[in-house]
Amino acid sequence: MISHLPVRPRHCDTQAMMHATRYYEYFEDAFLDWLGARGGYDRLRQEGADLVVKASGCEHHAPARLGDVLAVESVPIRVGTTSITMTFTMRRADELVAVGTITYVCIRDGRAAPLPAMLTTPA
Length: 123
Description:
Layout: E1 2-6, H1 23-36, H2 40-46, E2 50-60, E3 69-79, E4 83-92, E5 95-108, E6 111-112, H3 117-120
Antiparallel strand pairs: 1-3, 2-5, 3-4, 4-5, 5-6
């Protein structure tokens, strides 16, 4: 799934470049779009599950700038029993901007739990 997300003034520094900490917000927005195609966050919660971040990272390749519309592709690269690792490839047109990786762990009643089927089957 590809999300198209604009770079807004509040995400930028005085040089009109997106601040490094903001990339994770774009990855999260893209993940919510990906999750939405599978029934959404509300469905996940209705199943008694939630997701927490276990690990995250970002490789920066080119700066995102004010006014850019970034295409963020969300792809699961590992689906385990209780966790899912996503990669987020961010581009401006054909230019690679950043690649993020986030591992989410499924939680039920405060403990790691099996991923619901909505996360393990294709949309």
